[in-house]
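User: Glycoside hydrolase family 13 protein. Structure?
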Amino acid sequence: MKKTILSITLCCLVSALFAQSPSIQRINPTNWWVGMKNPALQLLVYGKNIKGSEVKISYPGVSLEKVNTVENPNYLFLDLTISKEAQAGKFPIELTKTVQVKKGKRLIDQVVKISQEYELRNRDKKPQVVNSKDFIYLILPDRFANGDPSNDKFADMADKESDRKNPFLRHGGDLQGITQHLDYFNDLGVTTLWLNPVVENDQPQTNEGGSMRSAYHGYGFTDQYNVDRRLGGNEAYLKLVTEAHKKGIKIIQDAVYNHVGINHWILKDMPSKDWLNQWDTYTNTSYRDEPVVDIVHGNQSDFKVQQNGWFVPFLPDLNHKNIFVEKYLIQHALWTVEYFGIDGWRVDTYQYNDLAFMNRCNAALDEEYPNMFITGENSVQNIISQAYFTKNNLNVPFKSNLPSPNDFVLYHAINATLGYNSNWGNGFNPLYSALASDAIYQNPDLNMTFVDNHDQDRYYSVVGEDFNKYKIGLTFLLTTRGTPHLYYGTEVLMKNFKNPSDAEVRQDFPGGWADDKENKFLAQGRTEKENEAYNFVKTLATFRKNSSALQTGKLTQFLPIDGMYVYFRQDAQQTVMVILSQNKEEKTLNTARFAEIIKGASSGKEILSGKILSDLKEIKVSPYSAQVIELK
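Assistant: Predicted structure:
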């Protein structure tokens, strides 16, 4: 933030004048751009005693349309129009206000003028398209790699600690650590990184379950226009995005619109009471999706609690019906794309946001950056709920424009097939059934699919550390429809359940810290089994990276029979056959019922083993196995 240029026109100043004098402390967005398709810009101006000021902006192509005031005299919201003719450059925003000061026993009027420089820049960012051709890798920055130990903690921040021995505190991972491992992602076959939030979380520790915990996860924003210093700040993020793009890797940012951290700078001096969803007594959201989706039998009371209740007491719920809140959040999203050059968004707690607001936010991003990948988190159990919050073919009054859901329905189907207390006899029907309902989505290929994430039990533990199940699930993830993502460390068999807390599934990546005894980034630092897992993922991801059929081809599935699930991905260039088996013994698969897809193919290459299959009429299928066969 640049220092305010303060000019006070008067002959004699006394201390009383300074107590009343207006000042400017912040302007958000911190800058803007010429050439945006939407010429409108609303500036949040925050200072002291600025209500009632005359505002002047004199710059070619920039028009001040309206000065909006709110309850709090320390805010102005300025509506500007940036014409097509406007050029990049800097100009002053000038405020003039008459204040009363005490001179002797008299009050006299004095004119105070203050000015702050604002900058318009030329647009230079072109986000890359993220879609089903990509393989996304999810990183919790604080727990991945520490590239710069000097930024682990700061004495002037609300949470001053960093201690790797404590699972609930910050551990020092940062953006420089991620940048240093870009070659690792390239080797693994990753094309896109999704980072848990990087925005400043200057939050105090909170007592959760009897333990003091840091906001290391990043979901309690305190200043949208600053990347957290403990991650390296704005410069480190710019460097990561730039270097990742050089390596052919895209960046997805985690967005939080539903709430902010209790320590957010705006909450210390709110523009108006209705900046937040307020209740007479504290009201928590119900965490249920049904009150929103149930348009036939639902009620307004449950709907209001679900939408306007707070996520937790230390994450105040933003009121999206406040027009200034809406503009503030939407403009920040646009600013982020243009300032940092990110390529996509994952929206946290999507279903708890005002859905009309989310449609407007998505539309604003799409207007400036057509076809930008936006995927929403809705931790739901059934397909109707999941489809309701995304682009769907349902006959319902509200139509969401969200391009992609985090596919929790398919995630639960994977668990039902392979995880927890399932047994081989349950079969592949949960997977088959979930995909059989895809007609409900407008574009199921954009569904972001996964086997675990930062809020779920780790996949290798879910499947009972059974390596055969591990391979079957990841084969399905990387060959079925959708846009797959992998949680950091799954490729090297990181494990644990969320017991007693989420910290158990958010452990540090071994090798990300200089004093780590093991370095799982390197083959020599991994065990034989971990290398087998890593190379398994690498083989599949590399094949997928070059397979048009697996990226965008049509999915044709066949009813699971005799403990085997067979499906195909195909386009004009390629046909890929996938065979998953849960049988305890070897089986021979007669392929006659797949003739409509196999057609004249006489041989194939099994990608995982490299073997050539010279006869496709009958295929030997090993126990508890996965095969990916490129037909010739």
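The longest helix spans residues 323-340. The CA atoms of residues 68 and 77 lie 5 Å apart.
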